[in-house]
Amino acid sequence: MSVGERLQGAPTDSPKRMQRLFGIETEYGIAVEGKGAGDLIQESIQLVRSYSGSFVTGWNYRGEDARRDMRGFTVERLSTNPDDAQFDAPGRPPMSMSEERSDRVLANGARFYNDHGHPEYSTPECSQLRDLVAHDRAGERIVLECARRRSAAIGVPISIYKNNTDFHGASYGTHEGYLMSREVPCDILIAGMLPFLVTRQIYAGAGKVGVEVDRLDTPVYQLSQRADFFSVEASVDTLHNRPIVNTRDEPHATPRLYRRLHVIVGDANMSEWATAVKVGTTSLAIGLLESGWTPPVRLKNPVGAIKEISRDQTLRWLVTREEGGTISALEIQRLYLAEAQRRFQGATPDADWTLSEWEMVLDALERDILLAADRVDWIAKRQLLEQFMGAEGLDWTDPVMQSLDLAYHDLDPELGLYQGLEQEGVMRRLVTDRRIEGAMTCPPQDTRAFLRGLFVSRHGSAVRSIGWNGVAFTHEGEDLLFDMNPLVEPNVQLLNEEMSATSSLAEVVQVIKKPAAQE
């Protein structure tokens, strides 16, 4: 019996179960002085290859198929964005996927690679919000360090932005992944998440100057960087014809028990608080659906609503209900909040923290948005930009405003506007710099990411390929597979402790092969 079989267990039925695995995948904007869009794939590749810490290569795509839809079918092809052609340099020889991706799996359990001209950092699986915040911010520092190393090598400045638009029509993603029970029917999942995902931007949006997709007669400051780029309610696509609810079926866990909700609608948050509350509230919303609740509201036009809320300069955020009449984004969020309070109060410290912060931010948004300027990105950015506009006599249509918008997301501590707010102590912090530094090399201790990191840091030379759900390695001439698909429940921490005590790969193999009778 394998380790996975020994630890395998179906999701707990109790509505109080709120501990789940989650993670964030961030594609970073990159600008290299003197280089155009057609050069960015190669520059992103070289930036990733500048990583100097412990890593292994050879990503394992076992169990991954971006065309597989959770509704029970596989699409023939994914939609592609014609604007992506700008990244294809003419005359460039074709590369293999492994060359282009240049995957690095790091000792902290994360994945770092090139995604079509963007350095992408995927955090390790986390089960605690502050762990996720620390690892998300560790990704910022790792990407910035690589940019500086690459910049020194080529002698030109490289800027890195944690945002979602280049202001020329291209959008790049910040995706979230949430492990959840497969027992929730797909139609219930889609209908239940649509109102929540459309409206959570009121506290999770990163803010944006202007509109890229439609022509508007009036100057606009939006709540969300991503809202412009969604055109359907549900599909497997991510690059074009983007859906509010992504239905990709890649669980990275035992498929008969679990699915992974792949959320692509969110913004890249600079605020630690916004990252934690975005993920915490979404996890609670998923928990509501797992416990059998369905929201008593449906939107007439979710695709239109996500844009209307983002662009509403009155901040009333009214949308049309399917059954008629209007309802505000605040009211919709309060529906989810009230039910989550009833079902999950006291479930975990993270649940209680999220419920408290969720209620407080909704109260603040209802009274005066500036009460939340220390934690909500779109408000903090808006306040900075409005101060500049007032001093200079500008409005939102002036080109300099988009440049300042971009500067909010610059990771350079000397240039980034958010960085300045944080250094002044204006923005709320959830984790210390020391914890972030630790997360750059150390995985979470209570998820299977610890085991992935252990292989990278101690036994990297034996690894043949590695992925979210397993490690293929060689020991004494034998090819072995450590299947991590089942290792998603909290009791994996016991295995982590046992593996941590090993001093050789032979001992690791003994633990993996240990029969149940010896437990």
- CATH class term of the largest domain: Alpha Beta
According to CATH, what is the topology of the largest domain?
Creatine Kinase, Chain A, domain 2
Mean pLDDT: 93
Biggest sheet: strands side by side, in what order? 3-6-7-8-1-10-15
What is the strand tally?
A: 20
What report would you give on this structure?
This protein is of the alpha+beta class and 519 residues long. The protein folds into 2 domains: 3-11 and 438-518, no CATH class; 22-437, Creatine Kinase, Chain A, domain 2 (2-Layer Sandwich). Helices cover 38% and strands 16% of the residues. It has helices at 3-7, 40-49, 97-101, 129-154, 186-199, 201-204, 272-290, 302-311, 329-344, 349-367, 377-392, 399-408, 417-423, 433-439, 449-459, 492-500, 505-513, and strands spanning 22-27, 29-32, 55-56, 68-69, 73-74, 104-106, 111-114, 119-122, 158-161, 174-181, 208-209, 221-222, 230-235, 242-246, 258-263, 318-320, 326-328, 463-467, 470-475, 478-483. The strands form 7 sheets. The chain has a 7-stranded antiparallel β-sheet with strand order 3-6-7-8-1-10-15. Strands 18-19-20 form a 3-stranded antiparallel β-sheet, covered by helices on one side. A two-stranded antiparallel ribbon has the order 2-9. Helix 5 (186-199) packs antiparallel against helix 7. The longest helix has 26 residues, at 129-154. The model is unreliable at 8-15 (pLDDT under 50).
